[in-house]
Amino acid sequence: MAFNTLSVVFLAITTARLTSAAYSKPVTCATGQKTAHAACCVLFPILDDIQANLFDGGKCGEEVHESLRLTFHDAIGFSPSLGGGGADGSIFYFDKVETAFGANAGIDDIVDAQTPFINKYNTTITAGDFIQFAGAVGVGNCPGAPRVPFFLNRPAAKAASPAGLIPEPFDSITKILARFAEVNFSPEEVVALLASHTVAAADHVDVTIPGSPFDSTPGVFDTQLFIETQLRGTGFPGTGGNNGEVESPLAGEIRLQSDAALARDPRTACAWQSFAANQAKMQREFGAAMAKMAVIGQDKRKMVDCSDVIPIPKPVVGTPHLPAGKTMGDIEQACTSSAFPTLTADPGPATSVAPVPPS
């Protein structure tokens, strides 16, 4: 694991630490880009650097998947009763503590990958800002993603997050919803936030099948997750799971126990189904949920809106569909108030999903 050279005490605070109230006139930065707030100018060199050197020229690949995971695992570390700083970069500042949490298995890889960038820009932005900025930029590399809002001005973390605050795929839905309710997320917002799984893959849920994606199009931010999770799981369990994995209907695809349960639980099934054929709704609600998650534990009144620095994602590729070899009879209806949208299947033999290659 890389050694974090940045001190917990964050000095040399720059203009990026000023509040949005101090700025109202759009400016042209020294780099030539325009932004609504001068404080945001510091982000453009960072943007160019991580697109070229963290995200492999702006691809929607493994580093994007892992950076998106890191935004959540850092932010959810807050409880009104147990403490924690939320989206404050504590997973970087106190990496040896937090990467040892069971729910953070494998996350040290992306912490290590981001560490040189965080140290490089440590007099410009905090680790908490960098983690959320990288997540917003990275997901924007995926066709179909929303332009995720980004706010600047998180202070440096003062302490590690308490253990046990990160929901795990084998947790009950009641426990997951209660954990999110602690940080003011409704069940519908939980489902919206999990749209992130459409560009995700798992290495440590089942170590026998690393790089297994959660849907058949992990390079596209589309609604396939909400369709394929609703298929009856008959045929392709992993061989080394027992860590929150359940049977998947597609070869090469992994299905989290929590995703399967959320798609079928009466508290969340209709919200899950509502995204299945509605790309615009998924984009809108995921973007709002991400923006809310990214400021857990923070005072938004002291932050600068730098959303206009985030690149505009490309349009979605493809349309909602059933995987090849499936029919509407394979859909396991769970929402009791409306029918699942009628979809057609891709032509050809039964779908087999390739693993996401490592970076």
From TrEMBL:
Residues 68-339 form the Plant heme peroxidase family profile domain. It holds the Pfam family Peroxidase_ext. It comes from the Eukaryota. The active site is at residue 73. It is found in: Secreted. Binds 1 heme b (iron(II)-protoporphyrin IX) group per subunit. Binds 2 calcium ions per subunit. Ca(2+) 1 binds at residues 74, 86, 88, 90. One of its GO terms (biological process) is hydrogen peroxide catabolic process. Heme b binds at residue 197. The keyword Transmembrane helix does not apply. The record marks 69 as: Transition state stabilizer. Residues 1-21 form the signal peptide. Gene3D superfamilies: 1.10.520.10, Peroxidase, domain 2. InterPro entries: Ccp1-like, Haem_peroxidase, Haem_peroxidase_sf, Ligninase, Ligninase_C, Peroxidases_AS, Peroxidases_heam-ligand_BS. Its cofactor is heme b; Ca(2+). Keywords: Calcium, Disulfide bond, Glycoprotein, Heme, Hydrogen peroxide, Iron, Metal-binding, Oxidoreductase, Peroxidase, Secreted, Signal. Residues 339-359 are annotated as: Disordered. Belongs to the peroxidase family. Ligninase subfamily. This is Peroxidase.
